Amino acid sequence: MVIGILSLGLHPSAIDYSRYPGLDQETLTARIAAGEAALRAEGFDIVPCQVSADPDEAERKVRECVADHPLRVVMIGAGLRMAPEHTLLFERLVNLINRLVPGIVFCFNTSPETTVDALRRAVAADA
Questions:
Q1: Strand order in the sheet with 105-108
Q2: What residues does 4 pair with on adjacent strands?
Q3: Are the beta carbons of 39 and 115 closer than 8 angstroms?
Q4: Residue 126 clears pLDDT 90, i.e. is over it
Q5: 58 in Cβ contact with 51 (< 8 Å)
Q6: What does the alpha-carbon distance between residue 101 and residue 72 come to, in Å, rounded to a whole number?
Q7: For residues 72 and 124, what is the distance between their CA atoms, to the nearest angstrom?
Q8: pLDDT tens for residues 58-87?
Q9: Where are the domains of the chain?
């Protein structure tokens, strides 16, 4: 059974890199791409959804990403969850996803490199 997974995070252009020494937009973009390739190699059916920091724009993007995709799991990236300035955005998107996809399983990574482990936990919990 294929499980549809929404991979939700801030677009690399929406990150304040001054908080993350040694990280820049190009590096993060490459890490995200490598993480998505690893997910596909593991057989996950992912729907990438990178949003802006603007709540209205982010909500529109999530609605677009969710439309026409049967989803069971959403993985929300650390950049969206952990920066205090994005708390209201995170809250708004969690509530939106909960309304759009009732019963969806949530999971969380700490970096693009930990996404596979987060999804394995979520899929096991959903089984």
A1: 45-51, 4-10, 73-76, 105-108
A2: 45
A3: yes
A4: no
A5: yes
A6: 8
A7: 12
A8: 999 999 999 988 999 999 988 899 889 999
A9: 4-126
